[in-house]
Amino acid sequence: MMENQDKRLVAYRLCLPPSEPDPATTIPAAIRNRVTGLINSVRQGIAGSKKTPQAPTSFKIAGYNLILMSQDGDVVWAKEYSGDVFDFGPRYSLWVFCEFTNHTKVEKEIAEYEIELIGEDGSVVKRFNKWFDESVVVAPYQSKMFLGQWRL
Amino acid sequence: MKMVKSNTNDESSDSAMIGRGVEVSGEIVFTNRLSVHGKVTGKLISSGGLLVIEETGKVEAEIDVGVCVIRGEFEGNLKAKARIEIYKTSKVRSDMTTPMLLVEEGAIFNGTIVMGKAASNYSQEGIQPEPGEESYKAKGA
To answer: N or C: fewer beta carbons within 10 Å in chain B?
Structure first.
């Protein structure tokens, strides 16, 4: 999340209109260096991905998490599911369907959600993230299904 | 069901197998694991167990289990509380209900997926979802 926010911040900085003060002269050197570093790492990542496509790897999946977020990036709701371990290997497609029911008396606005696949050691091995153009509103005691999908 | 024998070679005494060349018709209830190498027609039920339809297996049935792994042929309605796995050697014609679907490239699948709520035998933290389903159609990979 933080990394995504950082990237959005970078994009915003780079898109400042010409009438604004030159960011290079107004922002502190530390921030300027961080922005430059991020841009370089993104460039290297793009270049690297073009040169050497990563070989698909198998994962042992032990569960998944559903995280619902508001427009501000605050966690509205989170839930963890765990069960027996299974293999998610090359040439496999995986769909995860998560249901959220709003048990409160107020509407819940969801602008973004993540579904994380959890490995045997509890670490996140894959993440599915989706933003909605307009926040999804879940009325009290109503349910909404969220889909995550991956392909190796 | 006498035709379903316990697999004594397996580590778990709760495992059962329907051998190749064996045909079973009727309702089969199992606890832990059932492997089908033969033919089954009817119903297969387990509250949280694992059903494996092996490559030589052919099942025409209504299935309600915890996890279902398909490597052979299956036709019928399938409900899995935790997960369904469909491998490339399989031919499936089914309407399925599951919270998690794994499909290997090359599998033949015709039918619909209904997203079931998460498995009851899964540990859950947070608010317990209420029953409710939303229909999605998915085609085999």
So the answer is: N
